[in-house]
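Budget justification aside, the reviewers requested a transparent look at the raw inputs and outputs of the sequence design task funded under Objective 1. We therefore reproduce one unedited record. The lines immediately below are the structure tokens for a 509-residue chain.
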């Protein structure tokens, strides 16, 4: 029998060797160091866990007996890459004193097309058949039914193609489930809409593309449903995604804290493949950091090269390339703002100095229950300066704080946002602030969207504030957006390190 544990250790040693620094990202190196360190911990006196070579080898051997069901390969069955052996050996090799798995939560994050779904499907089948669970309930879950069925369909085709597997465990694939009659188990795919159904008691949960979840409701339901299981497994597989209020950013942050040693969580396995912050996204030599299978899959390299060419030529494709191929965090789907350039423009905005120069403003009333903004822009000696005020109703602050979706409360406390009383924005407060600004600065015009603004605009015009209707559309936006892009890319822009303005750009560009 192949000793997969030796291969996992060799992989970890190779990753931690400084001579191989260009092939492994910082988070992969930290994961390797953690693995090697935990092997030593397992041999110490009264260890919190032990490492079972036989359990690690058994899991890897099971996966390599499963067939390929997608693409054309040199072998009919799966041949595990060293990075997958590294992950699976840890997941099933480390055990608690009672023999159950040490890890009940696991994250594997890589760039797309690195076999995440295939490995998840194989692990799910292993948990359904080999973990001696009574009535195992395997669930592949995602925000949509189609996404949830990706892992399920791969597993179903594996079962359909493997007679020995069906006979050994009494497996029978149906249209929407895989039954295992030998132990009374099932494997199903569910979406967020189906997560509230009765009878859920997952022993293994595959949560695919966690970055796409807009909130934690699905995860919370499934976690509470697994309370009766002695050794549940929550397996998260994902590629990076655009920033959202969902659970991904918290899960990612926790994983990085665990890997960096800032947080001790012996139940949490994390492997995160990505290029590093100082890597050039167009440098082929660093691509393998986010794409561990690139060294055995020439098609993957070819596809990444194509997308790199397009990302260079079309800025709108840059974010997609950065996220999906480099597994690097990015803020916006369109990828229009280059945040590396943006951060360099955070210099001081001296309002006393700017009082002597003309400026123009913009007013966005948005919804009466959400953030409203007033902003001024000066152009002085070839440099644009901007400053503004924002308001949000106190109930919205409370709601966002409880949800943890947007840090409104800290922004209120820091003075970046002003809180108005009640459930809706008080337009009188905004009017007073704009009138005050008009008296303080040389405002030549304030653009506004007429939606929801009639009464406030009338009040401001009565106070001689120069208001100008702004009609939204490409003809209005395009020249301004082009000039804004030129200004911040060239460094001729100052916004005073305003975190809310940066956040606005991340989610609304």
């Amino acid at each position: 029998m192949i000793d997969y544990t030796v291969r996992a250790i060799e992989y970890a040693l190779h990753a931690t060797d400084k001579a191989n620094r260009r092939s492994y990202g910082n988070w992969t190196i930290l994961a390797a160091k953690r693995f090697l360190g935990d092997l030593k911990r397992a041999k110490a006196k009264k260890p919190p866990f032990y490492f079972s070579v036989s359990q690690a080898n058994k899991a890897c051997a099971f996966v390599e007996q499963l067939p390929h069901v997608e693409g054309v390969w040199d072998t009919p069955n799966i041949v595990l890459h060293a990075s997958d052996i590294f992950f699976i050996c840890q997941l099933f090799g480390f055990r608690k004193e009672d023999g159950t798995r040490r890890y009940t939560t696991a994250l594997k994050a890589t760039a797309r097309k690195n076999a995440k779904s295939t490995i998840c499907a194989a692990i799910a089948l292993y948990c359904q058949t080999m973990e001696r669970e009574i009535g195992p309930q395997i669930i592949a879950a995602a925000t949509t039914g189609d996404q949830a069925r990706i892992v399920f369909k791969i597993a179903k085709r594996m079962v359909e193609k493997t007679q020995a597997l069906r006979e050994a465990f009494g497996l029978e694939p149906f249209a929407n489930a895989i039954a295992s009659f030998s132990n009374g188990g099932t494997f199903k795919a569910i979406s967020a809409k189906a997560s509230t159904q009765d009878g859920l008691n997952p022993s293994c949960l595959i949560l695919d593309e966690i970055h796409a979840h807009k909130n934690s409701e699905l995860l919370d339901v499934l976690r509470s449903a697994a309370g009766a299981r002695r050794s549940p497994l929550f397996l998260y597989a994902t590629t990076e995604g655009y920033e959202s209020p969902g659970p991904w950013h918290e899960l990612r942050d926790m994983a990085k804290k665990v890997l960096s040693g800032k947080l001790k969580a012996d139940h949490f396995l994390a492997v995160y493949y990505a290029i590093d912050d100082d890597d050039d996204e167009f440098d082929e030599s660093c691509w393998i950091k986010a794409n561990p299978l690139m060294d055995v899959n020439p098609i993957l390299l070819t596809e990444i090269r194509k997308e790199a060419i397009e990302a260079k030529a079309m800025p709108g494709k840059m974010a997609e390339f950065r996220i999906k191929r480099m597994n690097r965090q990015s803020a916006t789907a369109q990828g229009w703002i280059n945040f590396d350039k943006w951060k360099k423009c955070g210099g001081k905005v001296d309002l006393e100095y700017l009082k002597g120069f003309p400026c123009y403003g913009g007013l966005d009333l948005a919804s009466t229950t959400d953030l409203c903004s007033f902003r001024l822009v000066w152009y002085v000696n070839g440099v644009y300066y901007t400053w503004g005020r924002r308001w949000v109703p106190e109930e919205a602050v409370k709601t966002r704080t409880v949800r943890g979706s947007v840090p409104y409360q800290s922004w209120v406390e820091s003075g970046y946002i002003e809180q108005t009383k009640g459930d809706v924005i008080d337009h009188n407060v905004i009017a007073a602030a704009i009138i005050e600004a008009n008296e303080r600065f040389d405002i030549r015009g304030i653009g506004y969207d007429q939606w929801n603004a009639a009464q406030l605009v009338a009040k401001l015009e009565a106070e001689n504030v120069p208001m100008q209707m702004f009609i939204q559309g490409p003809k209005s936006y395009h020249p301004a957006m082009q000039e804004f892009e030129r200004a911040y890319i060239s460094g001729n822009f100052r916004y005073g390190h305003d975190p809310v303005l940066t956040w606005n750009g991340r989610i609304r560009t």
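The first strand starts at residue 50 and ends at 51. The chain has three domains: 4-272, 284-333, 342-508. Computational costs for records of this kind are itemized in the attached budget.
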